[in-house]
Write a structure and sequence with these properties.
Helix 2 packs across helix 3, helix 2 packs antiparallel against helix 6 and helix 8 crosses helix 9. The protein folds into two domains: about 210 residues, Rossmann fold, CATH 3.40.50; about 50 residues, no CATH class. The protein has a seven-stranded parallel β-sheet, sandwiched between helices. The longest helix is centred in the C-terminal third of the chain and has 31 residues. The chain has 13 helices and seven strands. Helix content is about 55%, strand content about 15%. The two termini are about 40 Å apart. It is an alpha/beta fold and about 325 residues long. Bound molecules: guanosine-5'-triphosphate and magnesium ion.
């Protein structure tokens, strides 16, 4: 058997794919590999791209990749798909949109299903980012469909967040105002070929004027992703942002990812330890007692977690 960690560090795409699957299916099984690769990670720029369904995220990513590849950058793409395993629509769309890169040995593309995890982020997205970092990717682009809460979730993972909006989204801008204002480092107004583009741009800028002072205001870049228009200015804005913000800023973003992963790993481990400590039969009889309202689930949970604390003491 090949050494997965060694192979993926060399940038072998098959090894990257296997490593991500391993982390997705069974985090504990991936633990030894993750330990090995971890020291070499933390050096990529992670760009989160979020926005409503069909706003052109994948098309935009496709063109960003063209540009970044011209500069010799190695790219990892993670498309988080919130849809059910039965529709799979977004995954298909993402694949088609980015097809031309599928034979490029320096562009790795992976779709991950988000279903079932808090906030819609795929459970192993943090691991996937870490794996792509270990594999030497310079840029990691994480595409997530933003439907309310998910838009905010991306912030936990990304160094830089792009929020994609489309013309005519004026009401949405109002609705998501608070959440969006806080997370976007750069706004992208895509589908700028639409007649409503100017109006939406004015609405967006008016809204930003209220919330930000002077140069703290995130830039707004207009794009026509299908034509690749505006993509170069967008990449320039990203460069500018990285250069103008101190390393401390990027580091603070990277620490957000670490603290999210750490919390997630801890809670999973605690859950596993606790559930290993209760025999199935006892669990069922507790459910029975809660059902009869002899006791409430909070008291039961406290008691079970309390056992763990006592066992460690
Ligand atoms: N007119 C116009 N159409 C665009 C533009 N950008 C993308 N589209 C089209 O919009 C549709 C959706 O594009 P995608 O790139 O798949 O959008 P997405 O945000 O990745 O979609 P999901 O991943 O399904 O949420 C496609 O038919 C694109 O060709 C644009 O700038 N102008
Ligand atoms: Mg997409």
């Amino acid at each position: 058997m090949m050494d997965l960690a060694q192979e993926l560090i060399k940038g072998n795409h098959r090894a990257i794919a296997r490593a991500i699957s391993l982390a997705e299916n069974n985090r504990s099984a991936a633990q030894e590999m993750m330990k090995k690769i971890f020291p070499g990670t933390g050096k990529s720029l992670v760009i989160g791209i979020t926005g409503p369904p069909g706003s052109g995220k994948s098309t935009l990513v496709d063109h960003m990749v063209v540009l970044l590849r011209k500069n010799g950058k190695k790219i990892g793409i993670i498309a988080v798909d919130p849809s059910s395993p039965f529709t799979g629509g977004a995954i298909l769309g993402d694949r088609i949109r980015m097809m031309r890169h599928s034979t490029d040995p320096d562009v790795f593309i992976r779709s991950m299903a988000a279903r079932g995890h808090l906030g819609g982020l795929a459970k192993a997205t943090g691991e996937a980012i870490t794996i792509l970092e270990a594999a030497g990717k310079d840029f990691i682009l994480v595409e997530t469909v933003g439907v309310g809460q998910d838009e905010v979730e991306i912030v936990k993972l990304a160094d830089i967040v792009l929020v994609i909006l489309i013309p005519g989204a004026g009401d949405e801008i109002q609705a998501f105002k608070a959440g969006i204002m806080e997370i976007a480092d750069i706004f992208v107004l895509n589908k700028a070929d639409s007649p409503d583009a100017e109006k939406t741009e004015r609405q967006l800028k008016a809204m930003l004027d209220l919330g930000f002072e002077g140069d703290t205001m995130p830039p707004v870049v207009k794009t026509v992703a299908t034509e690749g228009e505006g993509v170069e200015p967008l990449v320039n804005e990203i460069d500018k942002l990285v250069e103008s913000k101190s390393q401390e800023f990027i580091n603070s973003r990277k620490k957000r990812l670490i603290s999210w992963m750490l919390r997630d790993i801890i809670s999973e481990k605690i859950y596993q330890t606790v559930s290993q400590n209760i025999p199935e039969s006892e669990f069922e009889s507790l459910v029975e007692r809660i059902f009869k309202r002899e006791i409430d689930p909070y008291t039961v949970a406290d008691e079970i977690v309390g056992r763990l604390k006592k066992a460690k003491a």
